[in-house]
Amino acid sequence: MKKWLVGVASFAMILALTPNAQAASKKKAAGSDPYGINKILKQLTQKKKVSPNKYVYLDVVLKPRNESQLSDQIYAVNTPGNSEFKQFYTPDKFRAEFGQPASVVGQYKPFFNKYHLKSESFSNGLIIKVSGKVKNVNKAFSTDIQSAKYHSNPVQFSKKKPVMPAKLADNVLTVLGITTVKQGLGSLAKKQSDSSKVKSEYAPSKFAKQYQLQPLYDKGYQGQGQTLGIITFANVRKSDAQHFWNAEKIATKPNRISVKKISSPSSLTTNDALGQTETDLDIEQSGAIAPQANIRVYQANFSDVGLVNAYSTAFEENQASSLSMSWGLSEYLTHYLKAQRLLTPVYGQVLNTVMAQGALQGVSTFVSSGDTGAYNRGIGGKIGPISLPNYSTYGTFPADNPWVTATGGTTLPFSKKLGKGIDISVDKERAWGGDYLFKAYAQNRKLFLTNPTAYQAMLAGGGGGISHLYDTPEYQQDVPGVNTFNARQYLSNLLQPRMNPVLISGTDYGRNFPDVSADADPMTGYQIYSAGKWQVMGGTSAVAPQFNGATAVINSGKGTRMGFWNPQIYKLAQDKDKTPFTVLDSDSNNSNLYYVGQPGKVYNQATGLGTVNFEKLYDAYQ
Fold first, then answer.
1. Torsion angle of C-alpha atoms 191, 197, 199, 203, degrees rounded to 10
2. Is residue 11 part of a domain?
3. Which of 107, 177, 459, 619 is exposed most, by the fewest CB atoms within 10 A?
4. pLDDT tens digits along 473-501
5. Peptidase S53 domain location, by residue (predicted)?
6. Which of 551, 492, 542 lies closest to 522 in space, CA to CA?
7. Using one digit for the tens of pLDDT, what is the confidence trace for 209-230?
8. 484-487 and 504-507 beta bridge pairing
């Protein structure tokens, strides 16, 4: 993978910073983050004023109430045996306990109206969407929005820290969108091959058979009465999905796809061809697994505002009982941008509160863990304006969030000829990692060095590791294998294959991910139809929507939401009689290019708890 990013699509990550407090006689800082843009002003180049008529989108994030009780309530409604089990919240109940009341939120609209800014608040009582012309934003917040370059990356910023009337500012946690940096990123296109026709070996039915979902179909459970949600940051092509299901002979519910377009910074769109292919993959796979479910797509541009608002909209509507997203970025960048004064340190807190709302409402949320194995891209140094990359075991954001179920990747057994007498094979399901290609690479390096797709396949694998952004959640504590690890360093610091690396062991602490895994290797992947072409794809981008669909199937049988999976599945995994998991615990031929299995332990960072037998999960899950 070239630049270590979840998802097929290339995209730009935009993150906001919120300036620190500034004393004023009648106004106060809108947020109290202890730093400001002024610390890097000298490093900005090509500074100029932004057109006063440019339209911008902001989020005014209010301070949550009773925040210390959020975790307890999530466990209460998602843990069997608790008196509040399955008493999922509505958006109104969430607001009543954790959001600001209408009497507080209502004070902001007249203020924004005064400055000709549109405003709309989410029913959670925490986020007010604000939009309007730059000249009016500047007047309302006493800012001076400008544009510039920061190490060649476009930046929008204000030297003046946003302030608001003291009565309003007192309840503001942060403002997203006034200052943003567009951090350019690339990704791996996880395509194995083009094809002119449907091939049964790459059909979505393979997932159902491999992971014992077929017995639930046989009982008549196909997602009827359910809505599954897709978070995406690219265009939606309904006709591609319908063509796919028809060609695969999957009897689906008609007119099942609806799209909710979410306003976010329009200049930072990711509606490119690869992004649209990612969206096709998500919709087609989730819809194939749950053929009678409705599909609700939440489409925004990828930005600090877009990410928060996409999830907030999904939870506000509360239509989708399960939700998936196949996008993300290196956790390293959240630390780097924070250190460089380009990311508010409360952004993780904001997203965490949003995701907590979903868990309280019983929404099962799945996020792809990444396709670069344990490795993610960082920044190792600079030559002039050029940032030099480094690669290390950084987490993947937001798969590292404690309130989502992170989906990792495996490789199914297969044999294949690469040409010129080179054979590759995998004899049993294992963690997805390109190290099984290293022997072939040693036999014929030219074959790989002249074939970028083959070389990239060696550097690909299921995301997994230990977060240094979020602490170890309660459901993972004391689970055998969590916060301990076995590893083999299959890649050098220069991303060169290392043959037969030694086994090392250690300990670390944080949110361990992924939680579950399934086939994600492009070599054993799935066919999709996109932009008039059949393509064989892979990546954990396929796994998240597949689990999304499987959840809709289970919900249709049980007649109630599964809710947030993790509190239950970590307990089931430790029950030898009830566990639905096949643990992939070998410490050899079973890596995500770094982490390997921990023999005899329930968990490892290469594949999480392992693969799922959905029939057993249905029977054991309460």
1. 70
2. no
3. 619
4. 999 999 999 999 999 999 987 778 999 99
5. 207-622
6. 542
7. 999 999 999 999 999 999 999 9
8. antiparallel
